Amino acid sequence: MSRIIDSVRDCKLLHSNPVQSESAAILLRSKVAAIAQRLGFSELKRENMALVVSEMVSNQVKHAGGKGMLQIWQQPGPVLDILSLDYGPGIANLSLAEADGYSSVNTLGKGLGSIRRLSDQVHVYTQQESHGREKRWNGTAILARFCPSGKQDCPVVGRHPVLNIGLYSRSLSDERYNGDRIYVRQDHETLRWMHLDGLGHGEQAEKATADLAGLLQHYDAPAETLAAVDRQLHNSRGAVAIIGELGLGNRALHILGVGDMHAHILEHDGMHNYSFAPGVLGKEHKSPEVTSLKFDQRCVVITASDGIRRNWDVSNFPGLFNLHPQLIAYVLGNIMGRISDDQSVCVASIG
To answer: Which parts of the sequence belong to the Histidine kinase/HSP90-like ATPase domain (predicted)?
Structure first.
């Protein structure tokens, strides 16, 4: 029986720190070393992480003028992610910037190249300032990923090279309890997930979404799973939810939901946005309908709670959705998240 991933247990923001000067590296190196040791990483891995943090801080100070942050995340595995995200001018030529010896500020120019060599995986997204009428984020996001046993263990879910997932889940004001929750199950070539948002926030919202993992094991069809969630939530505060199933073998997506959550599906012909049946599971709601799609090429499915704003499309983040799902989740969560609610994003890709 496959293990169920639970975002409350397996996806954690362990530290977040603004980067305004080189001194930020001192605290961040100490934090990442302590976290990595607790998670069982080797001394060599911890040394590499400290060097990556130093390079990231240096890059942000030099190129983004202190307008950025570094985050340390635990993902299933346990995988440790170091995320650098800034609001700088972006990188004009990423391939050139990753070459040793290149620098736009008359330094040694080893930052991005060093980060790539020292990490098990590196994913980069950059966007230069737009001069059009619509204001959009500009800057650079760098994800450096470390896995205890090396690169072969880095995929968040399973080891299939074309089926992957990215998780972002953050509680209101980074408090202890998080009412947003994502359960994930992978069997062979099928990925199933349950994305929930307990009503309100805090301890009772988290409690409402707890103890539902077994439903992903017991039921296969998304409609049956959602009906079981509805029954189990009858004596709780209630929640809204999306159930998704993505199959590599049959090249099919099935998705349905209840309540104020949203989904975005990206195929070769662009992005399609979806909302769901009004109401609350465990209380009153309209009957949900399953959306089923077939696809021939790459498909990216994004589900999000109402803690993530909806007013974006592919034009706001050109090129992002061709990248690793985890980097997509981090960028959307940090840029489009509402500070007044729990926030969560699940990004599943196939192809």
So the answer is: 27-126
> Is residue 149 domain-shared with residue 175, that is, in the same domain?
no
Residue 282 belongs to a domain: yes
170-196 tens-digit pLDDT: 999 999 999 999 999 988 889 999 999
Amino acid, res. 74: Q
Question: Are 175 and 304 members of one domain?
Answer: yes
* CATH code of the domain containing 71: 3.30.565.10
Q: Please tell me the distance from the alpha carbon of residue 276 to that of residue 256, in angstroms, as a whole number.
A: 7
pLDDT in tens, 267-311: 887 899 999 999 999 999 999 999 999 988 889 999 999 999 999
SS3 of residue 22 by DSSP: coil
- What are φ and ψ of residue 38, in 5° steps? -65, -35
User: Is 4 a member of any domain?
Assistant: no
Encoded tokens for 47? 């040394």
Strand pairing report for 262-267 and 270-274: antiparallel
Q: Which domain holds residue 48?
A: 10-153
Domain boundary among 153, 176, 204: 153
Contact 55, 111 (CB under 8 A): yes
Q: What is the largest CA-CA distance in the chain?
A: 64
Q: Determine the pLDDT at residue 109.
A: 40
Q: Cβ distance 306 to 146 under 8 Å? A: no
Residue whose pair of structure tokens reads 């984020």 in the numeric block:
137
- In angstroms, the first-to-last Cα distance of the chain is 25
- Tokens 């974006």 sit at which residue? 312
At 244, the amino acid letter reads G
Per the listing, tokens 């981090």 go with: 330
Instruction: Tell me if the pTM is above 0.70.
Output: yes
Same domain for 92 and 190, yes or no, is: no
Range of lowest pLDDT (153-162, 166-175, 231-240)? 153-162
CA–CA separation, 300 vs 293, rounded Å? 12
d(CA 10, CA 15): 15
